[in-house]
Amino acid sequence: MIVKNANVFGVISDIFIKDGVISDIKPSSSLSSSVLDADDIFDAKGKTALPSFFNTHSHAAMTLLRGYADDMPLDDWLKCKIWPAEAKLTPEDIYWGSKLACVEMIRNGVTFFNDMYWEEDSIAEAVTEMGIRCALSATFIDISGNTDKLIKKLNKAYEKHLSRNNDKIIFTVAPHAIYTVSERLLKYSADFARERNLVIHMHLSETKKEYEDCIKDRGLKPAFYLDKLGLLSERAVLAHAVWLDDDEISLIADRNASVSYNPVSNMKLAVGKAFNYEKMKKAGINVSIGTDGCSSNNSLNMAESLKFASLLQKFYYDDPSIMSAEEAFRLGTENGARAFGLNAGRLEAGSCADFFLLRPDLSNMTPGYNIFSDIVYSSGNNFADTVVSGGKIVMANGVINGEDEIVSAVCRLTEKFRERRSRGGSL
Known about the structure:
The protein is α/β, with parallel strands linked by helices. About 40% of the residues lie in helices and about 20% in strands. The protein has 15 helices and 16 strands. It starts with a strand and ends in a 5-residue tail after the last helix. The model has no long low-confidence stretch (mean pLDDT about 95).
C-alpha cells in the first residue's frame, strides 16, 4: 500500500507500507495507479500525516456510562453508581460499548488503547472488527473471597488469547488496585506475568486515601508494597500514580516501570493533587497519556487529554515552558508505544504503519505555524480525516464503515437502561 502526497513534517511525501510496517517515506513522485492496483494507493493530497495516539489507560465500554454519574467524590462514584451499574452489563453491552469507543478513538487519531474491563472476549471481538490495536486483560476485583475463581479465570483468559493468534491484541494482567485485590492474588498476578513476559496494568496511588490506607494497613507506601509483591518491573504500566513521594518515584524509575498520566480524569474526580511530571521525567520514568473511561472523563479524545496534561503542569509548576506541545505529543505517541514494547508512535521507516491524516485547512488549524501546537492546543474533537492502523485504512475521508449501526445499537441499549432506572434500579 502507498499513501501518496501526504505532508510529512513539511515535505510532500509518499508513505510506502508493507506487511503493516512503514517500509519507506520518500518525496512524492509521479507514481500512478498503474504501479499498483487502485485499491493499494490512497491519495492524501492536501493532508498532513502524523503518528497516531496510544491511549495507555482506558475502560472502553464505559462509553455506555458517559454522563451517568458525574460530579461525585471518587469513593461514592465507584461504590454507589459505577460498580452497581457495571454488575448489570452483559457481554453484548460491552461489545457494543467497546465498538463505540473504537469509533470515538479512531475519529481522534487513536490506533491503540490499553483497556481494563470485564468480558475481554467481547472487547477482543469489537477491536478485531474495528481494525485497531488493543491491550486487554482478564480484569479482576477480589473483595469477596473469590480468589481461586479469579485465578482460574485468568488462566482461561490467557489460553483463549493464545488461541486467537491476533497480533494486534496484547494480553495483559490487570489487577484493579491494591485496595480491591487481595495480596494473594496480587502476588499470583506478578508471578503469572513474569513467567509469561506479560504487561501488568493497574491503578496506583490515585487518591490520598489509597496512599494513607496502604501505609496504615500494610506498613508500606503503595509503590514499595507493589515492589514487595514483584509487581514493579519494566512490564508494569501504572495508571494515575498521583500520590507518590520522591522515594516511590525513584523506585519506579529503578524498576523501569511506565506510568500513565490521566489529567482529565484526575481533575474531574478531584484526586487532590497534580501529577508530578517534572520529577518523574528527571528520574527517567517513561510517562504516557491515558484518557481513563468515559464515566470519569466523558471523552476519549487524546488530543484534549494532551492539552490538559500540558496546561495542568504549567499551572502547577508556575512555568509556561514546561511540557511543550511537542513534548506532550510525544507522550501521547512514542512514549505510549514504548510502554508496550512496540516499534510505533513515530512516522519513519521501520515503524508500525499506525498514523492519521488531517486537513490543516480547517479553521481551528489555521494559519498553521506549528503542527504540534495546533494538534495539542486547538484541534478540538473528531479532528482526524483518515486513520491507518497496521497498514490498513480504518477510516477514510471521515467515513468509518458501520458507524451508524454502532451508534444505533448503543442507543437501543441505553434506552433499556433508562427503562430499568425508571423502575427504580440502576441501569
